[in-house]
Amino acid sequence: MGELKRTPLYEWHKARGARLIDFAGWEMPVYYEGIVAEHQATREKAGMFDLSHMGEIEVKGPDALEYLQSVMTNDVSAITDGQAQYSVMCYENGTIVDDLLITKLPDRYMLVVNASNIDKDFNWLKSHIKGRVEVVDRSDEFSIIAVQGPKSEDIIAEVYGESLRNLLYYHAVELDYQGKKNVVLLSRTGYTGEDGFEILLPNEFALETWNKLFDAGEKYGLTPVGLGARDTLRMEMKFALYGHDISDQTNPLEAGLGWVVKLDKEFVGAPVLRSIKEKGLERKLVAFEMVDRGIPRQHCPVVIDGKPVGEVTSGNVSPSTGKSVGLAYVPTAYSKIGTEIAIDIRGKILKAIIVKAPFVPSHVKK
Amino acid sequence: MNTNALKFTEDHEWIRIEGKKAYIGISEYAQKELGDIVYVELPPVGEKFTAGDELAEVESVKAVSNIFCPLSGEVLEVNEELAHSPELINKDPYGQGWIAIIEIENPDELNDLMNSEEYDEFCSSL
Prior knowledge:
The complex is a heterodimer. Chain A contains 8 helices and 19 strands. Chain A is of the alpha+beta class. In chain A, the strands form 4 sheets. A 6-stranded mixed sheet of chain A has the order 10-11-12-9-3-13. Chain A has a 6-stranded antiparallel barrel with strand order 14-17-16-15-18-19. In chain A, a hairpin with a 2-residue loop joins strand 1 and strand 2. The model of chain A has no long low-confidence stretch (mean pLDDT 97). Chain B is an alpha+beta fold. In chain B, a hairpin with a 3-residue loop joins strand 6 and strand 7. Chain B is globular. The mean pLDDT of chain B is 93. Classes of the chains: A alpha+beta, B alpha+beta. Chain A binds chain B through residues 19, 30-31, 34-37, 228, 232, 293-295, 297, 316-317, 319, 324, 346, and chain B through 35-36, 38-39, 59, 61-62, 64, 87, 90.
């Protein structure tokens, strides 16, 4: 592999025997032991993920809120200090620039964006600045470690203190580290559907923190988890993945993200989204289960009455259920739960059925 | 697992000869490359294959891989266990993870295969 970027945990992954791949220009672990084992460990005990490749963009200034309101689909005024929010950013035509997490802190907003979109997002945000606002790309300074699973609270409490057990879902705290104030941002957020935490911290503390968490977590069954299981975990929850279920070819309404789109607000893309909502959605992102044997993959056509009518955006075997499942866009007329569809998997037309999502229940601590 | 008696192909299939029968599977190297195997498409019993034809398909969580028939012949038996336990290929690639048994049509084709030592050398060059 050529000039790939490496996180502060790269040597640890390598020493552990991780299978490394190129992900968005980073040399990342796709698995250590195996995707299925790591997936199950996260659902049953706890998994630890290196997410340092993701982007961190800081927004500050007296007009920060007004500015963010103009570029985010969600209502950023709804979050107070120490609260996080999931949102989407849209182009004028209503399609999606990226999905992201925004955390409000006393002196700034911290945006965490997809690794594959960092430069795009930063440039787009800068091009829409209005008022007294500063937008800074701090991705090169920060690492992110996620601990997810039923045992994650025990592990975080041991490393960061018992009081952290009371951290509410989608809330965050700033913590001191080695005499430096507020350098660690600990949030009760995640991409797995399990109770979990995400730790955003300066690169120079990442390896030490990873080791501390691992030492504390081993007795609870903490397992390192690669990007392969990260994908199967999020897919079981029908969480969107940019480049698959959402992209600059999809709008948030058809992707099922209407709940983070506040159409009574003005933001880039709002007028188009309002007219789309009024006219009615042409297609919808649905969850489906294979009936015939086969594994659906991204780009497999969805076939109804012998005609291709949509495409699979994500597909795999769900390690928790053993079933072959996926997400796909289908015309609205065929999007009801229970609708029989077919998937063209490498030339074979195989039966499938639209089902309720998520495929497994959520265990976040709401 | 003692692989000394096995023959190998450059596509990482192994062959174990028992008289006129050839047991076929994929190697330790292959199963490791693929990761967790979640689905195996087995060939129909009775179908005839020529060496080099696509015999079976093995799908891991990440990708699909074709298994090529190393020898010409008829499929005598397939490992039905793989239908509900595809992970046998990961756990025991040379034993319980066998894929199919072919009736050897042309014993000369065996000469084109690598022995265990040659295969190990081949893998270290990859």
